[in-house]
Amino acid sequence: MLCQICKKKEVAITLTKIVEEQKTEIHLCKDCAAAFSDKFSIFPLPQFDINDLLADLLNAIDLYHKEEGIVLDKEIECSNCHLTYNDFRKSGKLGCSVCYQDFRDQLTPLLRRLHGNSEHLGKIPQQSKGKFNKIRKIKQLKKELQELILKEEYEQAANTRDEILKLEGVLKKKNEK
Amino acid sequence: MKNKSIILKNLKESSAEWTSGQGPLSDIVISSRIRLARNVEGIPFSPRAEQAELKNVFELSRQIVEEDSLFRDSNLLLLDELSPLESQFLVDKHLISIYHAREKHPYRGCVFNQRETLSIMVNEEDHFRIQYLLPGLQLNNIWKLINKIDDKIEKKTTYAFSEKEGYLTSCPTNVGTGMRASVMLHLPALAMINGINDILKAISKIGYVVRGFYGEGTEVMGNLFQVSNQITLGLSEEEIIDNLEKVNQQIISKEQKVRKDLLANSKSQLEDQVWRAYGILSSARIISSTEAMELLSKLKFGVELEIITYPDLGTLNKLMLLIQPAYLQMLAGKDLDPFNRDLQRAALIRNKISG
To answer: What are phi and psi of B221, to 5 degrees?
Structure first.
């Protein structure tokens, strides 16, 4: 819906005015609402939550689509909550944790743009600590293995490879359980 | 569990520890804060969850508060049961966000402890938004405390987490650590020489955000700035805190330098401004919140520079909350129109400052 005043921007806020049981609603964009705030300030006006971060995010999404030449002709949808990728593009909010899986191809470059990175390196929940710590360790060892091979330190590389195989074996057994 | 009116009555009379005016570098740093965004696995994020699912999340928070000794002195409020004024009062208290107060979906909650150091927003855009606040610059201490609380909550539920993206959140700007750390700074000297904008521009380029007194989307008032991290993914919590502390140290040392220069070169002018602020605040009969915040900032500056020795920093920090519209009306026990708020505000300030 477009703002009733400027008729250009999307509505960000709806003001409801009740005078002697006569209810009127005015739909305004962020800028026009700010200009109107004085006339309607019975209660401190909502501070608009269209914050810097969200604006940055939406810009990043659009820029990413433009640069990658992505046109969303087919609607991708989350298999769990049925949020479409287009919905996400408009609001900047995902619907559920499965969205991260189902939109991963689209999200990964976006996360890289937003955070300069797309892989988590912080805290791991206690419940899954063991498993994720092993996965992280394997990743790190694989990196080291490549470096060792490049440096032609084969004996060391063989040790690292064995360590990786061992850790992978432990993980596999745990998954089978 | 105590009922709503008792909880609100206590809250009206108590003051938060983070306003005490103590802690490291308290002449510039009012408070430090860390917030963690967490969601329960298998339930859509709050804005897209069904009523029954929102209820489950709320009941989970009740269970946690009732069963864990860590939350012994904590209260839980259901926002559906509060009037708009009472919800706004929680915003004025910094216990919930403006978004949380105004959002329409049911079963939004607020958990907070007696010291008001801990608060948990239940069913904000994420199921849990855990925040911890302490006075002065002490992010590392807060991380230790909030990390423990996070572990306790996790014992009662399973968090939405993926190996690749970390803690999953409604907005991708929070994903990963789900952590937003921030430091609230009082920067009157930099504001005086118009040095704020340069700093803000510089730090926004390296991944930091600056906000006003009430967080996201709010205006700067009383020369109070909240500096926080924008990046939440790809760094450990310790790195985020460490980097944020370094950025803040730099801003603090700039403020210190300008303060020193001002004292050396324009002491009389500074003294004049501080005492004028004191004069108006201790005698005005009608005062708006904008004017009050401006003058309280000047008076606070005077105390920080030891130009004036009273009131203490804690009193001034607390006043900055007390004079907010909803807080004032809660203290008066009734709705007040803007004119009567200005009267009430002036009386309150006179009382606290000369009292």
So the answer is: -140, 150
